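Dear all,

This email documents one entry for the complex benchmark we are building for the journal club exercise. For each entry we list the sequence lines for every component of the assembly. Then comes the predicted three-dimensional structure of the complex as a C-alpha cell string, followed by one or two observations. Please use this as the template for your own entries, and keep the labels exactly as they appear.
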Amino acid sequence: MKQITPLPLRCVRFTDGLPQRMQQLVKEKVIPYQWDTLHDRVSGVAKSHCIENFRIAAGLSQGEFYGNIFQDSDLYKWLEATAYCIEVFHNPEQEAIADSICELIRMAQQPDGYINTYYTIKEPDGRFTTLQQGHELYCAGHFFEAAVAYYKATSKRAILDTACRFADYLTLVFGPGEGQNHGYPGHQVAEVGLIKLYKVTNNEAYLNLAAYFISQRGQRPLYFPMERERPGYKDIFNQPVINLPTYAQTHIEPARQTEAVGHAVRALYMYSAMADLATLCGDDALARACNVLYKSVTQRRMYITGGVGSTYIGESFTGDYDLPNDTIYGESCASVALMMFASRMTSLTGDGAYYDTVERAFFNQVLGGISLTGTEFFYVGPLQVDPDVCRVNPSYAHIKTVRQRWFDVACCPTNIARTVMSIAGYAFGSDGNSLYIHIPFACEIQDGRFALQLQTQYPYGNTLRITALAGDQRIKLRQSAFAPIKTLTLNDKALPITVDNGYITLPALANGDVVLATMDMQPHYVVSHPKVIGNTGKASVMRGPLVYCAEQADNDKGLASLALPEHPSFSEYAAFDHGGAVTLTLMGTKAVSVDEQTLYQNRLPEWEPQKITLIPYYLWANRGEGEMRVYLNVRP
Amino acid sequence: MKQITPLPLRCVRFTDGLPQRMQQLVKEKVIPYQWDTLHDRVSGVAKSHCIENFRIAAGLSQGEFYGNIFQDSDLYKWLEATAYCIEVFHNPEQEAIADSICELIRMAQQPDGYINTYYTIKEPDGRFTTLQQGHELYCAGHFFEAAVAYYKATSKRAILDTACRFADYLTLVFGPGEGQNHGYPGHQVAEVGLIKLYKVTNNEAYLNLAAYFISQRGQRPLYFPMERERPGYKDIFNQPVINLPTYAQTHIEPARQTEAVGHAVRALYMYSAMADLATLCGDDALARACNVLYKSVTQRRMYITGGVGSTYIGESFTGDYDLPNDTIYGESCASVALMMFASRMTSLTGDGAYYDTVERAFFNQVLGGISLTGTEFFYVGPLQVDPDVCRVNPSYAHIKTVRQRWFDVACCPTNIARTVMSIAGYAFGSDGNSLYIHIPFACEIQDGRFALQLQTQYPYGNTLRITALAGDQRIKLRQSAFAPIKTLTLNDKALPITVDNGYITLPALANGDVVLATMDMQPHYVVSHPKVIGNTGKASVMRGPLVYCAEQADNDKGLASLALPEHPSFSEYAAFDHGGAVTLTLMGTKAVSVDEQTLYQNRLPEWEPQKITLIPYYLWANRGEGEMRVYLNVRP
C-alpha cells in the first residue's frame, strides 16, 4: 500500500464557502489578534508575557518569567499557524514577522541546544527534573511542529536548524543508554514533533527517540513516581489527579493499551504518534493498539460533535458511554488532537472511514471554538448550556457560556488557528499517483501531479463538481457517512458508485472532464446509544457533517421544554452569512405547565405547537449569552 | 393563638405500621450499632474514637485526640437518640449506659464549664480562636439538645446541670459587652440547643444568647474575616468555599435574608432557631424572614424527596430550580434540619401546611438514609444513580451507590436515629386543649389530657380510625396535600370536611366515639417546574407522601430507556415487608435501539411495551447495587 500523505498547503487555493471564510478569518483576524495577545497588547485579557519570556531568555530584555510553565508553546503554535498562512497566502509582511520570531527562538536557545524560557530564566539547574509536570518536552514537540511547518512554507533552514540542534540535544539526554534519562514526556506531543522533524531531515535519531518515548512509557518501575521521590522534587500543579498513572497514559505500555483514559489531549497526541510510528516502522503491535484505542474513543467515549473528555477533573476521559452534555470538558485542543489521530489512521490503513471522525471534530467542536469575529475562543465546548444554572452551580465553573478573549492557560486559541489554516492538508492527500479527496472543499488544486477545480458549497451544499485542468487526473473520492454520494456522473454520464476502503475511484480524467456528485444532505435525527443516559428520549439533528443546536436567540428561553416531533419536516434557510450556512426549522411542541408557580405539581404539562429553529452547533454563542442545546426531547 | 408544642414521646405508643417498625429498628439495631462504632468495636469501618476522646479529656485514658474537630457531636446525637428511646421504651439497661455517658461528659467538662474534647486535649489555649471552623458551638448545641432530651426522658438533672454550667460559661464568653466575644457559631445549631435549654430551665440568658448569635450574624464588619486575619489563625479545613460569606449565612443579617444559600444544614438549623425566636419573642422581622426563606427552600430549591443542597461543593444550596438528580448533595442531615424548620413554622404560625414538608423530608430523604438492617446509612441521597457512571466520572465521587456502614464525617447516622426515635413529637402536638394530628400514625396516646387510639397503615393505608378512650377528646386533624381526607365520619355519620389553617377540627369526642377518615392514596404523576431542566419531559410518581423510584432490581438495567405512559394505570402489591409497604406496577414502554452497537445512529429507537415496577424511594438500595431513578421519561 502506498502511503497517503497530506497535499502541501501551497497546492490548494480555497475558492468559496466555509473553508475560504475560515482561512481568511484566521489570516486577517486570528493570527494578528493572537500576535497582539502574545505581546500583551490586548487590554482586559489574561496576561501572556509569552514573547517577553523569550526576550528575557534571549538576553534582549530584563525581567522575570511569567505565566504557566508551558507558556512557550503558545508562541510555537502561533508560529505554526503563521507558517501555514504564509504557505497558503505568501504574505511577505507576515513572513518578516515570523522570521523575527524564528530568530528570537534561536537567541533563546542555550549553547547545548536546549530551549525553554521557564527553566532558562527561573531554574537553569532544574532541566528535566520533573518530566511529569515540567512540560519541557511538550514545548519541544510544539516547537518541532512549528519549525517543520515554517521550513516547509518558506524553505528557510534557520528555524529547522535551531530545532535540530534542540532535538540533537534531546537524543543525547534521553535514551536507553547508561547515563541517559530513561523518562518520557509528561504531556505527550514531543513524539509527534520529532516524527515530523524526522520526515523532513531523514535523521533516524529523531524517529528513534519518538519510538523510545512511546516504548518506554508504562515500563515498570514507572518513571514518574520515581521522579516524585527524588530529593527536591517540585510539585508544580499540586493536583492529585496528575499522579494517577492513567492521567498521562503511563499505566501500561501504549502498545497494550485498550481504553482511552486520562487527559484527553495527552492521550490523543500519543495515539497520533503511535499511528505515525506504526506507519513508518511497520509496528503491528502499535497498529493494533491504535485500532483498538480508536474504537474506544469513537465508539464509546466521543460526543456527537467530536468533543472528547467527559470531565473537567484532569480534563479527562471517564468511561464508556459517560457523555454528560452539561458538565463535559470537550477541550478544543482534544478535538484538534482527535483530528490528528483519525487522519493518521487513514494514512496507516488507507481506509477513508476514519475521516468521518476528522470531519465530525473539525466542523463541530473545533470550529465551535472560535467566534465569527476571530477574537474569542472556547476552551471547553459544552453541548448544553443554561446560563442561569451555570451561574449558580459550581459544577459548571469550567463552562463558559460565551467565548473568551484569552485564557490563563491559552493552549486552545493557537491550536484552533493552526488547524484551520492547515485544513487543506487534512482535506486532500496524495499517494503520489492518486489525489485523495477526504473532504470536498471548493478549491483549485495545482501541484506537479494534479490540476483540478472543485466547486461545492460543502459542508452545506449537496453537489460537488470536479473539473480536470490537466490530463490523467486520478482521484479517489471519499464516501463519507455524513453526506454519502448518491449520484455520480462523468461528463453527464452516470458512473457506478463503488466504494473500496472508503473511497470511490474515479476513472482517470482527461483535461476538461467534469465529474458531478450529489450528496445526501437531508437533515435527520441522530440518537445516542441507550447507555448515554442523559440522551435517552432525546435526539440531535445533523445535516451532513454538521451537528445542529437550538439557541435561546431563536427559540426563547426554556429549551428544555421543547420537543421534536417523531416525524420531522425540516425547512432550510440562510440566516448566518457564513459560507452558505443553512439554518433549519421544523414544527415541534413546547411543554406549558398548568401552573407556572409550583415547584411540584400533579398534572402533566400541556404541549403546544412550537416552531423550533436549529443552527449549526459551531455557530452557537455568536449572538450573546443564552441557553443552547444539542439534544432535545422527542415527543411522538 | 395558643402555641402548638410536641406531645411528649412518653405519651405515644406506636402500635403498627411504618413508625413502629422504624422505632423498633432504631432501638434494637441502630442505637446499639452506633454505640459500637463510637467505641470502635466495628471492624472495617471508619475509626470514630469519639468515646475515647471523651475518656482522654476526662482523664480516664491516655492518648491523642483523633477524628474531626466536631467528633464530639456524634456522641451527643447518639445520646439524644438514646434519650428518646428511653422515654419511649423505658429500657433500664440503655438508661444505665446513657447514665455512664452523662457522667463521662461531666468528667470531660473543664472547671469553668467548657466542654470540647478536641480543644481540651489538643489546643487548650485555642478555645474560640476560630469560630468559623472550630465547631465548638456546634458541638455545644448538640450537647444541649441531648441534655434536654435526656432530662425530659429520665427527669435526672445531672446532665442538665452539666449543660447549664457549659451554657452559663458561654453566656459569659459571648455577648455584646466589652471584653466579650462578639462572634457567633460557624456551624449553627448552638442557637437551637440554647433555646431548648431555655425552655426547660426558663433561664432567659440562654434565650438571649441564642438571639444574640442570630442578631449578630451578618453585622459589619463581618466577624469571620476579622478572625482569619488574627495572628496564628489556623485554617482547619483549607477549603476556599468556607470563606464565602454565604457559606455559613453571614452575608447579611438573618432577619433580612431572603434566599436559601450556602451550606444547607447550617442554613436550616439557623432558620429553625429563627422560627423558635420568632415564636418565643414575637419577633415579626424574624417571622417574616422565616416565611420568605421557607418559600425560597420549598418553592424553588428543594427536591421532591425533601432533599436539599444541590452541590457537593460546600454541601450547599445553589440557585432557583437548579436541582440536578445525579450530582445532588441532598445530605440526610439537611433533610432532618428541614423537618426541624418546617415543624417550627407550624408552631410559629399555627398553619398545618408546613407539615407537608415535614412529611416529604421524613418519608423520603430521611428514611432513605437508613438501611432495612439499621446498620448502613446514606450521607448523600441522589435521585438518580447509575453505578456504571458513578464508577468512572469523578463528578460523582460524593455519591455512594449503596449505604455505608460509617463515615469519616459521621454526622448523618446519629441525626437520622434521633429523628426517627422522636418522630412522635413531630406527628402529634398539643396546644393544651386540642390534640394536633400532624401525621396520622397507628398508636395509642395516653397523656393527662388525651386518651386515644389511632388505627391506620399510614403512610401506606388510606384509612384512619380514631377511637376516643376518654371523654372530651378535642382533635385537630391535619389535612395534608399528599393524602387529603376525602370522607370523614363520626360513629358512621358523615362529618363535614372543613379545613381551617390546615386542620379539620373534629367535634369533641366522648369515650368510645369512633372517627373514620379515608384519604386519597391514589398513585399519580408529579412533574417539576419547567426550569428544573433535568426533569422536563419526565415525571415522578407519588403515592401519599411517598416518592417512588424505579430500581434495576425490578426493572433490569437501562432505566433511562424506560418511559411512563401519559395515562397510567397503576397496580399495587406488597413486595417489601415494611409496615404495609406498597409496590407499584404499570405498563409503560422501553426504548430498544435499532442498532445496539453504534454510539450514534440515524434512527429513533423502537418503543416496546414494558412493565415498570416502582418502589418507595426510601427503600432503594436495599437489594444490592444497581441503577435507580426517581424521574422517568413520559411518552404519550
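Observations: The first strand of chain A starts at residue 5 and ends at 6. Residues 371 and 377 of chain A are 6 Å apart (CA to CA).
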